[in-house]
Amino acid sequence: MPITSPFLRPHDRVAIVSTARKVSAEDVAAAVEILRSWQLEVVLGESITAVHHQFAGPDELRRRDLQQQLDAPDIRAIFCARGGYGTTRIIDQLDFSAFTEHPKWIAGFSDITTLNCHLLKLGYESIHGVMPFIFAQPGGEEALESLRRALFGEPQSYAVPPHPLNQPGTAAGELMGGNLTLLQNLTGTASDCPTAGRILFVEDVAEYLMNIDRMMVHLDRTGKLRNLAGLLVGHFTDSQDNAVPFGQTAYEIIATYAAKYDFPVAYGFPVGHEPQNIALICGHQARLTVTSQGAELHYL
């Protein structure tokens, strides 16, 4: 069973860093105020305001910044400021030995799927959830509240309407997943996690439908789908198509491969690159129930 880090309490110190795309202090100013309203003390890492082309500073600076927060025993949670690209460039140079002595929550999504999976491989829970860069986005209030509840250990469950592609059933297992592109790219690396017996969730943004199919073929051929407990299919935002149409939507593509198996599948789950991006605790046991009335996810 993955280790659950201590839940946050008022007056805890938390850090904001950027492991990927550049971000300014102004970009996270609203998030700082929100975290302070949660009675948390906020520390900004040196990667906030650092710039190296599209990155939040060179690889070594971003690595050093995250490492400092991982090592600091008084930092109780680390928020990754935004996604983009860059986390995979530094993940293998990080030392998690101090982290294992003082586990803490790490939260983010998109490119941060790398960290979510790496921590699960090491045996620790983390949070796939909204990031400081978009804490104050219109329509994101429920997502932000779900993140706060996850961090402070408050109970929550989720229910979504029925979808014509859903596969009914009930399953229990540890949650894992994130961005489909990252999950496929992590295959065979030190951050690659077994999927057997787990509830996988996937989402993506601005991907070509052909690429979504290619990635699903890859996951299927590598056995990642074969022994899943269940599957949550989140937002596939702004999917692209070629001049000659692929002929299926993102959901229809995924259904092609999910239908080969008998695990429950829930489409339209509110996770991904849209304001409705509820927090999911990677590594935590949950129960998924899919019926004709819709789908429900409960933590165990």
Write structural notes for this entry.
This protein has 300 residues and is α/β, with parallel strands linked by helices. It folds into two domains: 13-151, 3-Layer(aba) Sandwich (Rossmann fold); 157-299, LD-carboxypeptidase A C-terminal domain-like (Glucose Oxidase, domain 1, 3-Layer(bba) Sandwich), CATH 3.50.30. 25% of the residues lie in helices and 24% in strands. The mean pLDDT is 98. Keywords: Carboxypeptidase, Hydrolase, Protease, Serine protease. Residues 173-288 form the LD-carboxypeptidase C-terminal domain.
CATH topology category name of the largest domain = Glucose Oxidase, domain 1
The CATH architecture name of the largest domain reads 3-Layer(bba) Sandwich
Could you tell me how far the N terminus lies from the C terminus, measured between alpha carbons in angstroms? 12 Å
Structural class: alpha/beta
Largest sheet: 7 strands, mixed
Helix content: 25-40%
Order of helices and strands: EHEHEHEHEHEEHEHEHEEEE
Give the number of helices: 8
Count of the separate structural domains: 2
Radius of gyration over C-alpha positions, nearest whole angstrom: 18 Å
> For this entry, what is the oligomeric state of its chains?
single chain
Organism: Hymenobacter cellulosivorans
Keywords: Carboxypeptidase, Hydrolase, Protease, Serine protease
Family: Belongs to the peptidase S66 family.
Domain LD-carboxypeptidase C-terminal: 173-288
